[in-house]
Amino acid sequence: MKKIKSLSDEELIELVRNKDQELYKEVVRRYQTKLMRYATGLIQDEDKAADVVQESFIKAFVNLRGFNTKKKFSSWIYRIVHNEAINYIKKHKKEISLENNKWVERAAKSNEDVEEDFNQKEAKEMLYLSLKELPLKYRSPLVLFFLEEKTYEEISDVLRIPIGTVGTRINRGKKMLRLIYKKKGGEVYAKN
Amino acid sequence: MPRTKKKKDLSQQVMKQIQKEKVRMKPRFYFVAGSILLGIGLAGAIVGAILFLNLTFFRMRIHGPLGFLWFGQFGLRPFLVTFPWLPLLIAVGGIFGGISLLRRYDISYKKSFLGLVIALLVLVLTMGFVLDQIGFNERLERIKPLHPFYPGHFKNQDWVMGEIIQIEDEEMVISTPQGEEVRILREEKTLLPFGGDFEVGERIRGVGEWRDDVFVAKGIGKGGLHWRMGPGMEGVKERKMLPRL
């Protein structure tokens, strides 16, 4: 048998399902950091995000036989965390700061000329600083793209939206990032 | 975004919770059954929508309920009675049910959802229309258990429809598709939105009230009535030869 560490996610899931449920610990180890980062990006609170991720792992375990091993496990588990996080946000609307800035949505949809082209590192920095002010609809694809480094197709699988919509949201989200960043007075990455 | 300060190891907590609460994986059968039920539900919703839309087209065709609106206030009640509200409502429910089930399928987000909805609508509308055009309903209405779906009445307390078999100055006799003869009395103030020239063999509708066996028309109009002659509806042709009044 291959060493556990060298198994693909999907092979590992097969083993958990059919041989040893204890191996689920390895699945959790592989994904906890990434999923914590994603959930924290959405919820903006690390403790609450930890609860959401833990609950998601339990839910994933319960439904593990429903996972199709021909598909990517990572998209599946991200999808569960995404749903749990969104449910949590909806349930605790009053406690969670959701500064759904209408101005930034309007501005991003307008033809205002905003330089959107920035590299991964710049985007990450800007995301960390402006994420809280970014509407939730754009927060998820941007976090998945810049922080989790997922492809458009993977993001489409996680968020269950067409690839074209992923592209639109990322582009508009980038524009929003720039606008929020500018509003805050940060010109470090603003290109002249 | 707050950056992770210290790494929490969730694996111990998750495994502990799984063991402590005796969390079990759902059996594979559960998911297989779910997929099958989803497929049955989707197929059922689409087939149901097609059948009830087909019934809607049928009832619109034979009663032409919109035609009653030409008679103004006198036509309102006949319109409300003959319009196929229930089949239409069930068909719309089936379409919405189908769309909501379609969303659960993996393909639904990979394709344009609007495109899928349009494809579903085109399928349901086309199939519903084609079924009605090939005489599907005329066959079904002969089956006794299906009679509640086919209230083939062509006269009511304030409306009547049929084919003219005799005409006099103030009177005409029509035969409903089921072969019932109705004497219609035309008065001076009777509304004639499409003119007063009627011929034997024309299909008409009348709104008004019954005085004994005679229907006193407040309005008479033609057009929009497209029933087909089938078993139980042959009466009209035979009675055309009746002697004039």
Instruction: Count the E strands of chain B.
Output: 5
Low-confidence stretches of chain B: 234-245
Q: Architecture of the largest domain in chain A, according to CATH? A: Orthogonal Bundle
**How many domains make up the coordinates of chain A?**
2
Helix-strand pattern of chain B, N to C? HHHHHHHEEEEEH
Q: Approximately what portion of the residues of chain A adopt beta-strand conformation?
A: under 5%
Based on secondary structure, the structural category of chain B is alpha+beta
Tell me the major beta sheet of chain B.
Answer: 5 strands, mixed, barrel
**Strand percent estimate of chain B:** 15-25%
Largest sheet of chain A: none
Helicity of chain A, as a percent range: 55-70%
* Shape by Cα distribution of chain A: elongated
Order of helices and strands of chain A: HHHHHHHHH
Count of individual domains of chain B? 2
| Assembly status | heterodimer
Question: How many distinct beta strands of chain A?
Answer: 0
Q: Which features does this protein show?
A:
heterodimer; A: 192 residues; mainly alpha; Rna Polymerase Sigma Factor, Chain: A; Arc Repressor Mutant, subunit A; 0% strand; disordered C terminus; B: 245 residues; alpha+beta; OB fold (Dihydrolipoamide Acetyltransferase, E2P); five-stranded mixed beta barrel; 8 helices
How would you sum up this structure, described in words?
- The complex is a heterodimer of chains A (192) and B (245).
- Chain A is mainly α and 192 residues long.
- In chain A, 66% of the residues lie in helices and 0% in strands.
- The model of chain A is unreliable at 188-192 (pLDDT under 50).
- Chain B has 245 residues and is of the alpha+beta class.
- Chain B is built from eight helices and five strands.
- The longest helix of chain B is centred in the first third of the chain and has 36 residues, at 28-63.
- Chain B folds into two domains: 28-149, no CATH class; 159-239, Beta Barrel (OB fold (Dihydrolipoamide Acetyltransferase, E2P)), CATH 2.40.50.320.
- Chain B has helices spanning 10-20, 28-63, 73-82, 85-102, 107-110, 113-133, 136-140, 235-239, and strands at 159-167, 171-175, 181-191, 203-211, 214-222.
- Chain A binds chain B through residues 17, 21-22, 24-26, 28-29, 32-33, 36-37, 40-41, 44-46, 50, 53-54, 57-58, 61-66, 127-128, 131-132, 156, 160-163, and chain B through 1-5, 7-15, 17-18, 23-28, 30-31, 34, 109-113.
